Amino acid sequence: MIKVFVYSSLEEREGILMKKRIVAVLTGMMMVLMTGCGDSDMIVLTPKGDARIEDDGSAKDAAAENTQKKEETQEPETETENTESSSGDLIHVGFAQVGSESGWRLAQTQSMKGAFTEENGYQFDFVDCNNDQKTQIEALQKFVQDQVDYIILDPIVEDGYEDVLKEAQTANIPVIVVDRNISADESLYACWLGSDFTNEGKSAGDWLVEDLQKKGRDSEEINILTILGSNGASATIGRTDGFEEVAKEHSNWKLLDKQSGNFTKDGGNAVMKAYLKQYDDIDVLVCQNDDEAFGAIEAIKEAGKTCGPNGDIIVISFDAGGEAFQAMIDGDINVDVECNPLEGPAVSELIKQLRNGETVEKVQYMEEGVFPAEEAEATLPNRAY
Ligand code: GYE
Question: pTM of the full predicted structure?
Answer without folding.
Answer: 0.80
